[in-house]
Amino acid sequence: MAESVALVVHCSDPRYQPHFQEFLAKGRGLGHYGLVAVPGGAQLLTMTDYLPKYSWAGWRWTKFMMKLSQPDRVVLIAHEDCRWYLDPRFGYDATRIEARQIDDLEQVRRTMMERFAARRVDLYYARLESGRAAFQAL
Ligand SMILES: [Zn+2]
């Protein structure tokens, strides 16, 4: 059976990189995957009204990577204590950041399905607990 290929979108926070890699390779069996890693991860793709140029670039990269990777699934990962989301420019309620991140993942999943006819978009929320990462499927 051919190895499954994914396109992954996650935050570029250094605290999480080895955990994301290990989870994707060992946890999900994705040895090779296309990657869009930027501060805030998939939030990049939700900013069409607030930061349209930024969002435009994000969708251009994503479209390019979809074409290059030809993925059979897309994986979007958000994480706890995402400093990008805490930036005052967004004016998010700090006590509701997790709900906001999950809303963003769900919004991007819907748009991925509409724009690219993506059949499968997996969502995860990662937390660090005493040096280990836990991934919750959403
Ligand atoms: Zn982050």
Can you give keywords for this protein?
single chain, 138 residues, Beta-carbonic Anhydrase, Chain A, 5-stranded mixed β-sheet, globular
Explain what this protein looks like in three dimensions.
- The protein is an alpha/beta fold and about 140 residues long.
- It has a single domain, classed as Beta-carbonic Anhydrase, Chain A (3-Layer(aba) Sandwich).
- About 35% of the residues lie in helices and about 25% in strands.
- The protein has a five-stranded mixed beta sheet, with helices on both faces.
- The chain is globular and about 45 Å long.
- The structure holds zinc ion (ZN).
- The site of zinc ion has 7 residues, from loops.
Summarize the structure in short:
With 138 residues, the chain is α/β, with parallel strands linked by helices. It has helices at residues 17-27, 52-69, 97-116; strands at residues 6-10, 33-37, 73-79, 121-129, 132-137.
Number of helical regions: 3
- Main pleated-sheet profile: 5 strands, mixed
Topology pattern, helix = H, strand = E: EHEHEHEE
- The fraction of residues assigned to DSSP E strands is 15-25%
**Tally of discrete structural domains:** 1
Mean pLDDT over all positions: 93
Give the overall form: globular
Give me the count of strands.
Answer: 5
At the fold tier of CATH, the topology name is Beta-carbonic Anhydrase, Chain A
CATH architecture descriptor name: 3-Layer(aba) Sandwich
Low-confidence stretches: none
Give every kind of bound small molecule, once each. zinc ion
Terminal CA distance reads 27 Å
**Strand order within the widest beta sheet:** 2-1-3-4-5
Gyration radius, in Å: 14 Å
Classification by helices and strands = alpha/beta
Helicity range: 25-40%
